[in-house]
């Protein structure tokens, strides 16, 4: 089979990261978490004291940024200007700030080219919000992974358990707020592409979702 470009979009906590990583491993593909790039911009904006709506400041920041993934057996690491920031971008403050800066056209423009360059050569699974609609409208296979809000909050809670003092209810509120921001922004809002395969993972394990996706990939490529 020719190497494919596969996109997996969906809201926060739907299981995209686990599923995308595992699907990529099964296919021998690279896996790219584009949310980490938005988090990287948010992290650097915060370090420089920039407000999420300071477009001039964000544009200058993006022009000076060098974000890249370094791929390793244990997973990929995100480097910003040669500094490993992987462990500093996973907290609720950066989550909210990433959602806010992702609505700014200057940030989306900067990351669009970066993401498209990362897709050269195919054999890659891209995870995000607008992979199938905007970044790779001609992707070979597009999935939209969803789950109920309660399920997503519970999964995020388990994932963060030792690293957060937030309750499940607070995590659910954060997720709802981010969904609202991501779905209603005017530029590249979170939504399934017209030709996306919708997968509801509310009652499915990550392994079951991966098997389902592999069967769709097999069928689509016949
Ligand atoms: O997938 P994540 O939770 O790490 O993403 C963080 C934020 O980045 C998310 O709230 C919206 C934004 N994002 C985006 O706008 N487009 C993408 N392709 C990926 C993430």
Automatic annotation (TrEMBL):
It is an enzyme of class 2 (transferase). It is found in: Cytoplasm. Pfam families: Cytidylate_kin (PF02224). The keyword ATP-binding applies. Gene3D superfamilies: P-loop containing nucleotide triphosphate hydrolases. ATP binds at residues 10-18. Keywords: ATP-binding, Cytoplasm, Kinase, Nucleotide-binding, Transferase. InterPro entries: Cytidylate_kin, Cytidylate_kinase_dom, P-loop_NTPase. Belongs to the cytidylate kinase family. Type 1 subfamily. This is Cytidylate kinase. The gene is cmk.
């Amino acid at each position: 089979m020719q190497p494919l470009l596969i996109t997996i979009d969906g809201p926060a906590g739907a299981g995209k990261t686990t599923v995308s990583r595992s699907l990529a491993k099964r296919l021998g593909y690279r896996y790219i978490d584009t949310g980490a790039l938005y988090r990287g911009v948010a992290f650097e904006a915060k370090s420089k004291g920039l407000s999420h709506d300071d477009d001039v400041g964000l544009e200058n920041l993006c022009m000076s940024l060098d974000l890249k993934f370094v791929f390793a057996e244990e997973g990929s690491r995100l480097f910003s200007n040669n500094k490993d920031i992987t462990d500093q971008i996973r907290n609720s403050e950066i989550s909210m700030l990433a959602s806010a800066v992702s609505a700014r056209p200057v940030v989306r423009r900067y990351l669009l080219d970066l993401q498209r360059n990362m897709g050269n050569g195919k054999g890659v699974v891209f995870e995000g919000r607008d992979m199938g609609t905007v970044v790779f409208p001609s992707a070979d296979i597009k999935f939209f992974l969803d789950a109920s809000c309660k399920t997503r909050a519970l999964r995020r809670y388990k994932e963060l358990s030792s690293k957060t003092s937030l309750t499940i209810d607070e995590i659910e509120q954060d997720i709802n707020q981010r969904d609202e921001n991501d779905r209603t922004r005017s530029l590249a809002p979170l939504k399934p592409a017209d030709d996306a395969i919708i997968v509801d993972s509310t009652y499915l394990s990550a392994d079951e979702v991966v098997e389902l996706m592999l069967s769709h990939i097999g069928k689509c490529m016949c």
